[in-house]
Each structure stands twice: as structure tokens, then as C-alpha cells.
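Researcher: Quick one. two chains, 426 residues in total.
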Amino acid sequence: MELTERQTRIVEIVKNSSPITGEQIATKLDLTRATLRPDLTILTMAGVLEARPRVGYFYKENHEPSALLVRLRQLRVGDFKSIPAAIRPNISNYDAIVTMFTQNVGSLIVVSEEHELLGMISRKDLLKAALGKTDLQQVPVGVIMTRMPNIIMTMSDEPVLEAAKKLMQHQIDTLPVVETFIDEHGDERYEVVGRFTKTNVTKILVQIGTLGQ
Amino acid sequence: MELTERQTRIVEIVKNSSPITGEQIATKLDLTRATLRPDLTILTMAGVLEARPRVGYFYKENHEPSALLVRLRQLRVGDFKSIPAAIRPNISNYDAIVTMFTQNVGSLIVVSEEHELLGMISRKDLLKAALGKTDLQQVPVGVIMTRMPNIIMTMSDEPVLEAAKKLMQHQIDTLPVVETFIDEHGDERYEVVGRFTKTNVTKILVQIGTLGQ
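Model:
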């Protein structure tokens, strides 16, 4: 259960005084009904509250998630990931920018010859380099990339919702999708098998929402 | 109803031979069960197919969308939009990049003094300028921005799903949220009141999926 502070207060109010209208909740919180609408919608969609027309909101003890929600939670990254847009660390920042344009992606995954995850480079990193004194043609991406172990990753069997949470929490657009393997020294390493982005998440929402219409 | 070609073929197969297992559908399409899984999941979530354990898939004639799906389709942009990250057209591209970093956004909305929508500028536009011969300090964003009428927009009362579709179809990250007004010549113009991005969509999916858990 991950409620915002305001959502927690709404749930408390509904628990203590249901049925209660949106208008009445808004008055108690000193907010407008319009400000509360998204919270009430989300809480009702998630099955925490029940909205009865012309009566008001009820708190749902032991709320059963809807079948759709159960399925939403079962979606796995592996079924919706994109192919990785990957480059080697020795190519120039200039060539990295050109690759971004030709592949039309916002981030590139930097990999070794064996497709092992070494780092990530984003449009933001490259803009920063372009602003500074970095010679884009001469300096390789390996110098300015964000490098392991500072990369947030996902795996094919991770739930889509967990991966989406990572994208939000870390304010990033792209997660490399990896598989772990053990190298000759017994250390854990990561092979890149895809990428998972906010575009994949948006596509999932559009597909769920528009199919069967 | 917006099905991909493969989803259409799946629906046809299920219509003609239900109940049918995922394995059997995969064989008919000469694909693996794993390849079909996301399509089958989405079709089931959207209520087009019904999955009965140990029996198989059925086509649902006149499928009723679930209550959650009905609500999902009712979500409006205005309830989930972010405040606009806006700049004036006369500031330099250099300052635009700095503003992007300080506001941590991928696109800036270019507006007049009256907050009228004039154009958009993205990290991609600025990277392109940085690669070329453009003097970032001297050239204003008004010169390199994408300008009206070539801007894809949304409005507060547009369904979130429609806005998300626009983001996918036009391969963009940000839609300016506008209100129309009529200027002194009787022409329609657009005032910027927010922005709607793939980050907003991702947040909605995370909220729906994780609340009430």
C-alpha cells in the first residue's frame, strides 16, 4: 500500500465517516472538489474506496482487487521490453549522438564485446558534455557515461509495475534489461538483453485502455 | 478497437475454434507460446478473450469492459498534468539547456509574454544544434524550436488515453496542455496551462497498480 499523504488522509476520513461525498471530503481537507478528483479516482480504481452514485464514498474492508488489476500486476518486463540500443565504450560522443538520432532513442546502453553491461549514456549526459569543453569527436563515451555499479537495472521476470516504479523513483527514462551470469572469477555480471522505458509503459496503458473498445 | 495484425489473427482463431489453448494458438500461428503471451494477456485484460484455467481461451461476444477499464477511460489530462516548464523565444539555446537541467525536464514549451504557445524545444533539438555550427550562446531558441502549427497539443478535458496515444503515434515525450482563446483578429490561439508527458502516464500506471496492495 503506497499512499501519498493526502490519499492517506482521504482514506482516514472515509473510514471514519462513510458514506461521505467528495464535496464533504474536500471541505474537511480545505481543498476544492476538483483538486481531490484524481486521488478519489485512483483510490476507487485501486479498490480502496467504493463510490456509490448519489450516496458517497465507502471504505472497502479487505478490498478484492479487480481481475484486471490482478493481471496488471502479473505483467512481466520480458513480455514488453524493446531491443537494446547498445554501443561500445570506445566510440566517440559525436558518434553516440548520431546513433541516438538514427535509432531514435533517448539513452544508449554501453556494452562490452560480450554484451556485458558497462554503463549508460543519455541525451542529458551528452548535452552536458556539449556545453562543457568536451571535444565530442575525440572523447569516447566510456569517459562520460554513468558506469556500473551505478546503473538501475531490471530483469525479464520483474513485474512491469516494479520496473515502472524504478523509472519514477530514479527519474530515468530507460532501464537496461539484464540476465546475470558468473564470470571466471566467480563474480556476478550482467548481460544486456533489452531495454525498458517510459515509452513501453505508455504503450501498455494505451493497449489495455483501447483494446476491445 | 485497435488490434495489431497478430492480435486480429489471434481473435479470429479463438472465434473459430474456442475453447483453444495458448499452445494450440501458437502452433496455428507458427510462433512460440512465449511470443504470444503478451498479446494473450492484453486481449484478456481488455475483455476481448476470456481465459478459463485448464480449458483455454474463449471469445467474448459483446464483452463488457471491467469497471476499472471504464474508469481508466474516464481519466482526464487535467487531473494528472504537470506545471508547464516554459521559456521565452528570445533566450539563448545555452540558457535553454541550463533551464532543462535545473527544471529536470526533457522538453521546454516556448511561450509569449501572454503565455501563448509559440513552439517546443527538446533535448534532441538542442543536441542537434550543439552538433552543428550553431553558436549556443548567441542563437535564441526561437530560431531552432519546432513552431506552431506543427505542435501536437492536448487539453485538460481530453482523456488520458487519447493523450497517451498521441505521445506514442508522434514519438514525442511531451504534450503542451492548452486552453483556446480568440484573439483580437478573431483567430484561435492557445494558452499554455500545463504539460503532459510519458512520465505522467507512467505515474498513473504505477498508482493504479500499487494502491490497495
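The two ends of chain B are 30 Å apart (CA to CA).
Researcher: Thanks, that's what I needed.
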